[in-house]
Amino acid sequence: MDPTLVAARLTPDVIAPLIRTLFVHDGPGTDLVDRPVHLSRLVSFTGEKPALTERDLLRVAAELVGAALGDGPRARPATAPTATATAARPVAPGEDSAVADALARTLRALGEIDMDDLQAARLLPAEFARRLHETVPGVTRALSAEGTRFHSLLLDSVAPYILRFLTLRSPYVARVLTEQLSGHGAGHAPSPSSEDAAFEERYAHATAVLHNHLTIFGIDLAHSPDSWPLDAAYLGLQCEPRPVGAGPAGAAGPAGGPDAAGQDEPPVPAEQALSGRSKVLVRGVAGSGKTTLLQWLTVATARDELPDALATLRGRVPFLLPVRRFAQDGFPSPDAFLTAVGYPDAGSQPPGWTDRVLGSGRALLLIDGIDEAPESDREEVRRKLADWTDRHPGNIWIVTSRPSAVPENWLAAEGFTELSLAPMSREDVAAFIQRWHRAAAQQSPADIDRLGAYEHTLLNAVRITRDLGRLATNPLMCGLLCALHRDRRGYLPNGRKELYDAALSMLLERRDRERAMVATDGVDLTRQPKIQLLQKLAHWMLLNGRSEMDRDVAIETLAQHLPAIPDAARQGGPVEVYRHLLNRTGLLREPTPGTVDFVHRTFQDYLSARATVQRHDFPLLLEHAHHDAWEDVIRMAVALARPDECAALLDGLLAPHAGVKAAEARHRKLLAAACLEHATELDPAVRARVQRFTRDMVRPSTPSAARALGWIGPIVLEMLPDPRPVPDDEAYLLAITATSIADDMAIDYLTALRDRGHHDVRAQLAGAWRHYDTARYAREIIAHLEPAELYFPVSDLEELHALRRLGGRPHLQIAGPFTPDQLIEGIHPAEGLTRLWLAYDLGVSMEWLSAFPQLDTLKIGHRIRPVTGVPDGIRVIQL
Question: For residue 81, what are the domain limits?
Fold first, then answer.
């Protein structure tokens, strides 16, 4: 299903007249304006003589379905349907009436749900839609997976209009909301014209629908849809609030007095890190959630559902611009923004509308994936960004990139702040696993007992199994682990190569079998031909520096290779095979009409590596090894290569290479070190040679260089020097490197630094607690750190209780969500606490601090709103 086409058809002029019929024409009476009204009093199909009959209700639902499909009486005028539009039909022919019946039954719940008008008006549309759906259990049970998703899409589309008419039809809600909103809007840009406003309403609606679905890899087997609503799937991401590569903590940033010296703020929720910033570059590794973050910002802005921390985004017009779509032709001009974002009705925008939005400073520009532009073009992208930000002040710009794709401070001259998406903490991983299994249980209630057991065993496995813990660092990896664990009934592969092999097997072999699918397109390929063909597409993208290709180029590429794959060639031509790969593998998608890409860049890199190894094209890898886009391809190639090929590739990374600069040569050698952990079998002499060549490189001279070593992984611990005899400034850099490796193996190395008296060393060790096993790190590191002038961070109850078992600490940093009761109970002895650093916005008044009689100082992180209710005698420092 293409949500874009559905959104383009379900415009306000289509939906509003239909939803209006569901409500009584007059409110319940002025005598009720002083109290809320039950929803059943406002709808037109309840009571002894309903104005709208059951048949009428079904007709309304059927018209909505028909309009969304483009073939109903209220469908928007359009040209003749193309083959692409026909193929993108949300449901199979014949299921239209079943979806309409399910939607009618869901809308009927407006008269049955136990809710009054004020309660409904205070809900966000997505939550209101979910409540309606829950009121009619099993309403989609008879639908296919596609039908279920289409029903959800329709319900998401009508929910905002239902809430609007509730407000219009209820004098009480209208009066309350008017009072609440009076005075709002001061200082905002002038309101757009009526024509612009009408178009923006349609655009916001379509944009929210377009981006409100995420693929969660693996929940696409029996009786499960290919994607999930963003509302349910989005896991709040954390950002490192300090710029990547900043010097020793305390050397930059707002002055916070002597207490702040030498100690970083911890990762904070993305919305808190972004709060108040107008220009941000967000770095994150593949799969860390960069695109998901921008999707969430887009949907929340379009729906006006932003949290208070992002109040500056309210009322803005979001433009989510994937760099891959304009990498070849350059940054689009404003009048081409809607084409670049994939809005299907771009031609209907009022002339000059985008220029007016930019000129009034109302735009939210989300530029996704600088790394997906060819390296030779990135400087031009930077110049264009500089030009646009200077020309259109007042707008908000958020740009994403892989960490190594652009230099540090790449956009600093243009006023951009740099943030980094933090690896998922233990709590994040646990929350993701729990949410994944609950989502799966909603789709497969009969499997709920097994899913509960799978959730429990996977939580334990990720916590105690080193290899699994190292893999579960971002949403993509966690999703794959959950899916494979369920698919293999509790068995999980070890290592990244095995994980991707198993994922391909699941997506390419079991996907259709578990769905009991039969070949509907005349093509029925086994796993190996599918992989071979997908590799050809991935290899083309690698050679051409692209993460997206034209549909015609993809078909031409398949045509070149089909004769060599007879099992595929005899089942259809390149067009049929392309359509089969797109619809039946779960790995390809068409982000815009006429283009194709992989659902995630990581799959493209892995398949590219497979193709290159099969072609024995190791000189190609060595030729590009210093280019950031090839890093993951080379690491996977080492995992896939035979022992002699692996040895030759690593030796080639160490050897001098024509035209490579000194910094690039260093990068190639560090890449060789990073590859060691992926080599299943390797000549010990080669391993020793890599370690010898890189040993001197792992004595970093700056904090940024020390952090950069973290991407190599645990293998670097074998090469780091003994930290005991080195001076404090070098020990601090070694502590940065070791704590950047989120593997419990690092604890053994850090024990040699725990008795240092130097404040920066102690602060670095204390701040890394969240990356490791809580009990072990508390026992082996935290317990040994001299507490003088050191803030000990606590991000969850386990850490809080561990500190309590250690006898408490005088200075604490609150680095996670807590309630006042949890802190009062967990901080012991109460009289031992003298200073508190609030690095996480708890969202409550501070009267509870009176429980700590010796507390004299409260520090407030610089991304947190001013607090209230602080007891007398406590000094407040806003960083």
Answer: 3-184
